[in-house]
Design brief:
By secondary structure, this protein is an alpha/beta fold. The chain contains 15 helices and 11 strands. The strands form 2 sheets. The protein has a 9-stranded mixed β-sheet, with helices on both faces. A two-stranded antiparallel ribbon has the order 10-11.
């Protein structure tokens, strides 16, 4: 059962979420973290933690009635890439197949008012990546987002939709059939409590989750003020790769995307361009993740058998930057060499058994 204290942490103002991440990584139990943060922010309101816990208990009850699952930060199912961002969601509310979170993921984002060219490219890239065992992450918005989700579904692959409202709220409303088609093999995800409406300020903050779940972000047709550029910025801050698809220079629709290319983003024309940038390989067998040898892997050498280590310990022992350690840990997990345990820690698996 979901600990209401984790849910209560998710109900804190967004300005407190970095504090939440720091307290959890420091080893605080969620109730302890809640008390410390609440007393610092509301010193004259000693009843604040109790009020937040009451709201959290009500949210858990609503989720049960509406068929939503919940993954807390300490759960082994919590995505390791997401757990390492500076302000990870204390709880992810879900509907669909949580198995989607075990796949390597790439985000595809872009314009809501997308051109036919952008829609075609988004669908093709998503389909080509999905048949290779990559989960496609996007935001369920009109335009490029929905084309990417549909491309993954059409290929029989998996896709993850990150919402700027409760996981039980469909927005935009016309995407009800799309949501239902995602659920069998993919996942609907939100950090917001069940029943939360789609308010404008929720969408920029959910973009950090889109990038946080993903190994890389691919931008297709983004204007100068596009929300996709927020996702790209989050990706760079999180140490993820940013790639972009070139577009028509005459229309002005892709000035934001072209700015990313001028700043060093890798040009994407095919799915192989993405896989080569991320894994050093091109085409892979359908249904298989990009391969990577384990012999002599420096991260495995930093993980003694039976000893659970958190990300900071592994980074310190390996001497590698976090941006390289996280994706490799995820690959090792997929290969069965590493397993996740509670609190965002990793343990080496004895493959001799």
């Amino acid at each position: 059962m979901t600990d209401p204290a984790f849910v209560a942490l998710s109900l804190l103002p967004i300005q407190a979420w970095r504090d939440v991440g720091e307290r959890l990584r420091a080893g605080d139990a969620p109730a302890v973290a809640l008390g410390r943060i609440a007393s610092a922010r509301w010193p004259d309101e000693p009843e604040k933690p109790s009020m937040l816990l009451a709201d959290a208990t009500a949210a858990v009850a609503r989720a049960a009635v509406r068929g939503l699952g919940a993954i807390s930060w300490s759960d082994t199912e919590y995505p390791p890439l997401l757990s390492a961002i500076i302000d990870p969601p204390p709880v992810l509310w879900t509907r669909g197949s949580v198995e989607a979170l075990r796949l390597p993921a790439i985000a595809i984002v872009g314009s809501r008012a997308a051109s036919p060219y952008a829609l075609d490219v988004a669908g093709r890239l998503a389909a080509d990546l999905a048949v290779r065992g990559i989960a496609i992450v996007s935001g369920l918005a009109r335009g490029v987002d929905s084309a990417a989700h549909r491309g993954a579904i059409a290929s029989g692959g998996s896709t993850i939709a990150v919402l700027g409202c409760g996981a039980d709220v469909i927005y935009p409303a016309e995407h009800g059939p799309l949501v239902r088609s995602i659920e069998p093999r993919g996942l609907i995800v939100s950090e917001l409590a069940p029943g939360t409406p789609p308010l404008p300020h929720f969408f920029p903050q959910r973009n950090r989750i889109i990038s946080g779940l993903s190994r890389a972000v691919v931008v297709i047709e983004a204007g100068e003020r596009s929300g996709s550029l927020i996702t790209a910025r989050c990706a760079l801050e999180q140490g993820r790769d940013v790639l972009a698809v070139p577009g028509n220079v005459l229309s002005g629709r892709n000035r934001g995307g072209h700015a990313l290319l001028r700043d060093g983003a890798r040009i994407v024309e095919t799915a192989d361009d993405i896989l080569e940038e991320l894994y050093g390989v091109g085409a892979t067998n359908e249904g298989q993740s990009p391969p990577r040898a384990m012999s002599g892997d420096p991260l495995l050498a930093c993980l003694p058998l039976g000893e659970a280590c958190d990300l900071d310990e592994i980074v310190e022992r390996s001497g590698l930057p976090t941006a390289r350690v996280l994706p490799r840990l995820f690959e090792l997990e997929l290969l069965g060499a590493v397993s996740r345990v509670g609190g965002g820690r990793f343990v080496r698996v004895d493959r001799s058994c």
